[in-house]
Amino acid sequence: MLNRSPAILAAFVAGALSLTAMTAVAQDKVITHPQGETTISGVPAKVLVQDWAAFDNLNALGVAVAGVPSSNGPSYLADAVPADALPLGSLFEPDFEGIAAAEADVYFVAARSASAYETSKDLVPTIDLSVNNGAIIEGVKANITKLGEVFDLQDKAAELNAALDAKVDEVKAAAAGKGDALVLVTNAGNLGVYGPDSRVSWVYNEVGIASALADVKDGDHGGDAVSFEFLLEVNPDWVFVVDRDAGTGENTGAAAALLDNELFNQTTAAQQGHIVYLDPQAAYITMHGYQGVMLLLDQVLAGLNG
Amino acid sequence: MRWLGLAIVVTIVLAIISLFVGVSDVSLGALLSSSPEDRPMQVLLISRIPRTLAIILSGASMAIAGLVMQMVVRNRFVEPSTAGTTESASLGFLVITLLAPGWPLMGKMLVSALFALAGTALFLRILRSVPLRDVLLVPLVGIMLGGIIGAVTAFIAYRYGLMASLLAWSMGDFSGILRGRYELLWIGLACCILAYIAADRFTVAGMGKDFTTNLGLNYQRVMVLGLIIVSLVSAVVLVSVGSIPFLGLIVPNLVSLMVGDNMRRTVPWVALGGAGFVLACDIIGRIVRYPYEIPISVVVGVIGSMIFLFLLLRTRRYAA
Predict the structure, then answer these.
(1) MF terms per GO, please (chain B) (predicted)?
(2) In a 10 Å sphere around its CB, with 0-12 CB exposed, 13-18 middle and 19+ buried, how is residue A29 labelled?
(3) pLDDT tens digits for B274-302?
(4) How many Cβ atoms are within 10 Å of B160's Cβ, its own excluded?
(5) CA of B172: which chain A residue's CA is closest?
């Protein structure tokens, strides 16, 4: 009982909050999201999430969660996941029976699980928190605001968003005049380039670090396959690396070993030590989570100032 | 012999094109006017020559592995990726990556080769208890076995969050090849030479166990030699480049249509054909989405499956 107390306490608090909300004004809230409108009555007490970014956002707001995806939990969130959380199936395939049986008040899907909405909306009030990769920071802020509304935590949400804006401004200032950059993704010995539509697009779009490449029509996962020769020719001033092997569980350090070669070592970024390894799970798995984005921004900032 | 000379010339021309296709400016003029420390020469030495060599070595050795396999199994539609060999090599590489991630590539490759050997032996064992030796049943059994081994591999990879890496290994791709990252493929060349030396034995073994024994050859030993060649080549290519589908199937079959089944005569053709085919496919992969690349396994898969269908339909017509 005692060791699980934070989660239980949070659940009690949430429950109590919802009770007071119901007794005071049992108001229905209509939440609009990418797949339509969902009506939530009062403040939800039992919360399920199918997406780690959604979990990240709820955790940032201090909302207790009763059900989480059963796999790929990013390590930076490991301590935040309650030990007794209900496993809801993989990021792509929700366990609908378990979700129906849980009788939750609200269920969040996003990105990989967005297609579950059609089925789950008949089982439990479902909200889609998908974010457009073209404007990730904006999307994260919008989600935080939306969740603040759902859980009556508007003040906390505003506070978080202000902190995010401040961080973005700080990185922007640090990046000014530092040259252009390329986000690389490494995957079992192969190289890809992430561009302005990718899952780390904020580096280019919202933080304002110029892309060393005019146009990258990147594939969603491995980026655009390129050779080392290509990197040598593009010759970015900075390189941000997403080690996808590490992002999905393998040992870290694979990317550093891959990049340490005769061609890459001739690029400006390598010669000036301008290589920043991003938290692969925040960049690759959660992508649109508040704490994940903050973590990545901090890493970019530390790299730029380092 | 005259035709073989022409094939050699075509392959050399393709190799030269391969040397001069890429993102950096490596033209003959740039090379001649630059010193050895300048970029064109550096790119040529560090990237282009290793890549072209890797293509030639893996193309030739995969095609030879297919040829040897077809002789050993006595079926035209068998090659390492339709007999569970590639999948077994992949499983071996995954297992050793999980157990001993720090091992040198050579050690990992050997473990991978041992798995490939075991998987291929299992395939032959299953074949022995299949009564009907229909031409298409044999590769079907192999594809099913490969499917089972692939499922086990995928399960382990999924459990350890290595699905993405597994996909990347099994996707043949030359874009990461640099000096120092392809040298294992020379083992493939050694296997090709071995296959050429033992060519007559494989030709005889291809006629059946009784026939081979009657001629005073140790059938078992020839089989084992064949399996070792196939397993080593599959493991080396998988570890350095990834898998290249259909190659071991198309090239030997096309060669057999043209020059017959005497392996002493077909080995050089198959080696050249494999190298030339992969060279052409890789050049296409580098040009279509320039300056990005399309992995070799995609290009070979598209072109190869069309040729495979052609071969299948053709055989059907002749058999009917």
Answers:
(1) transmembrane transporter activity
(2) middle
(3) 999 999 999 999 999 888 888 898 899 89
(4) 16
(5) A190
Tokens of A64: 């207790």
Would you say the pTM of this structure is higher than 0.90? no
Domain-wise residue ranges, chain A: 29-157, 169-305
Contacts B48 to A, Cβ<8 Å: 229
Q: Chain B: give the shortest CA distance to residue A188, in Å.
A: 5
CB contact under 8 A, A189 and B176: yes
Residues of B in contact with A72 (CB under 8 A): 161
- State the average pLDDT over residues B202-224: 89
Mean pLDDT of A4-28: 57
Stretch A164-176: mean pLDDT: 94
Are B165 and A228 in contact (CB < 8 Å)?
A: no
**CB of A205 within 8 A of CB of A134?**
yes
Interface mutation vs chain A, best among B43, B44, B49, B179, most A CBs within 10 Å: B43
Which pLDDT score is estimated for A2? 45
Quote the DSSP letter at residue A44.
Answer: -
The CATH number of the domain covering residues in A169-305: 3.40.50.1980
Alpha carbons A123 and A179: distance in angstroms, whole number: 51
| Chain B CB contacts of A189 below 8 Å | 168-169, 176
What the block records as the tokens of A106 is 């609200």
Residue B291: asked if its preceding bond is cis (omega within 30°), the reply is yes
Domain B1-12+53-311 belongs in CATH node 1.10.3470.10: yes
From the candidate CATH numbers 3.30.1060.10, 3.40.50.150, 3.40.50.1980, 3.80.10.10, the one assigned to the domain spanning A29-157: 3.40.50.1980
- Kindly state whether A70 is in contact with chain B, defined as any CB-CB distance less than 8 angstroms: no
pLDDT exceeds cutoff 70 at B311: yes
Nearest CA to A259 out of A297, A218, A221, A231 is that of A231
Q: How far apart are CA B201 and CA B26, in angstroms?
A: 45
| Mean of all residue pLDDT scores within chain A | 86
CB neighbour list of residue A121: distance below 8 Å, 6 or more residues apart: A36, A38
